[in-house]
Design goal:
346 residues, eight-stranded mixed beta sheet, 6 helices, 21 strands, 37% strand
Length: 346
């Protein structure tokens, strides 16, 4: 369910002057002498007016209002560049829409945009058949930072080169830098995925092993986060989520799933038939995330109370009542635009 707003203004055409009927009887005019006198009086008045205007500027008279032209404001297009009063608004048609709570008004839509994300590291999300968000899979990142060196174990062979391993990841030299594969798979599977990874035009490519499939290729940082905020107390959830905010969001980018593997995620049942997980990723105190479609991540988060069983139950109930907005429906909410770095690892 969602709304796309459009307004139409229809100007009423101005009434046309009545035309005289040539067949109608003529009304007798005034005597010619009176007409001549009136003309002379008018000419004298004009002369006096001209003389007076020569000493002081004339003030323009009131303008007659013109009829409004008929205007139709249609749905936003990728070329729109309007700006709402006081703050920038997202107008370019995005690749993803938004996520909203059913039965609640949308007052604070926000777009967190990271246009430079495409120039940074890229990811390939690989999952075992039957895997889901943050479960039974791995994320390959290239180029990968070397901050993981501090958490490494013994050296490990990756093809013809030597990499290093840590808990749930393998880091090895590739291309002009290093690549990392991180997931909840056995180390042998992580190494096998690493061996099948190449770099093409500066971006990682993975030929999935038997029994695996590539889910998505995307920047590590999240190019767009479409977020809507709600007051937890207004939702009647202050006892579970505190007197802070609850928010819904839709995003994409392999960094979200990589962060799930890095920080740890707990299964949380299903939302709209999709497996869900609870974690601290993109959450003030926590978030519950699932995939409404392949490569797109939806989540409900909160800030205001520590994570607890009661909070997770409240999030699950909220998530079941969410619905996805299409990209055009999202733009119709006039979301404020904030450019920032959307790094889920921070």
């Amino acid at each position: 369910m969602g709304w796309v707003w459009g307004r139409w203004w229809h100007a009423r055409p101005m009434a046309r002057d009545g035309e005289s009927d040539p067949e109608a009887p003529r009304v007798p005019g005034p005597p010619q002498g009176l007409v001549l006198a009136a003309v002379l009086a008018l000419a004298l008045g004009v002369a006096v007016a001209v003389s007076t205007l020569g000493s002081s500027p004339a003030k323009p008279g009131p303008r007659t209002p013109q009829a409004e032209a008929t205007t139709t404001i249609s749905e936003p297009t990728p070329t729109d560049s309007t700006t709402a009063p006081g703050y920038p608004v997202e107008t370019a048609l995005p690749a993803i829409g938004g996520l909203a709570l059913g039965g609640q008004p949308i007052h604070t839509p926000l777009t967190r945009s990271d246009p430079a994300a495409v120039n940074g590291a890229w990811t390939v999300v690989v999952r075992r058949a039957g895997g889901s968000l943050g479960r039974q899979g791995a994320v390959v990142t290239y180029p990968a930072g070397t901050s993981d060196f501090a958490n490494t174990g013994a050296p490990i062979r990756v093809g013809s080169t030597t990499g290093i391993s840590g808990r749930g990841f393998v880091l090895w030299p590739l291309g002009n830098g290093h690549a990392r594969v991180r997931g909840d798979l056995p180390q042998a599977d992580l190494v096998h995925i690493a061996e099948l990874t190449t770099v093409v035009a500066g971006r990682p490519q993975v030929r999935p092993p038997a029994g695996f499939r590539v889910i998505a290729r995307a920047p590590y940082r999240l190019p767009l986060i479409h977020e809507i905020r709600y007051g937890s107390s207004k939702l009647g959830l202050n006892s579970a989520l505190g007197d802070g905010i609850t928010y819904t969001a839709l995003t994409s980018g392999g960094g979200f799933e990589d962060a799930l593997y890095a920080t740890g995620a707990t299964p949380a049942g299903t939302v709209h038939g999709a497996p869900a997980v609870v974690s601290s990723v993109q959450g003030g105190n926590g978030s519950l995330a699932w995939e409404p479609s392949v490569g797109v991540v939806a989540y409900v988060g909160w800030s205001g109370a520590p994570i607890s069983a009661k909070a997770v139950t409240a999030l699950r109930d909220l998530a079941q009542g969410t619905y996805v907005l299409t990209p055009r429906q999202w733009l119709a909410t006039k979301p404020s635009l904030n450019e920032q770095e959307n790094n889920p690892a921070n």
